[in-house]
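sorry for the late reply, my laptop died twice this morning and i had to redo everyting from scratch. anyway the thing you sent over, i finally got around to it. pasting the sequence first so we're on the same page, its 113 residues, then the predicted structure underneath. double check i copied it right bc i was rushing
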Amino acid sequence: MARVIDYATMSARRGRAARRGGRDATADKIAEALAYFGGEAHRRMVLDRLVSERDDGEDPELYRLRLITVFEAHCDRDDGRFKRPFGRDSHRWALNAAIQAKTAQVTEISSAL
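ok and here's the structure:
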């Protein structure tokens, strides 16, 4: 008998389980990927990197859609972690300036060690 997976339920459950202390683990992963690319990159590069790191069997297209949804949710907030430097229709993703500055400090400290 084939195993049936309810992706909507699984995704919602994973989303709740991934939140730690008000932080969204998916947004954290997006921020880490953007930091890897120097604070900003084309959406496709970020998505490809994050999808290639996955090994839990989740459908890659559903994961891409979830990543885009999380990015947009954080981008549309006044205190958002992300921004679109070339406007709303752009596929260029970036860290918010304050977060990018913190990332640069951590990178500087890490390279000094």
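The domain at 7-112 is CATH 1.10.10 (Arc Repressor Mutant, subunit A).
thats about all i looked at so far, will dig more tmrw
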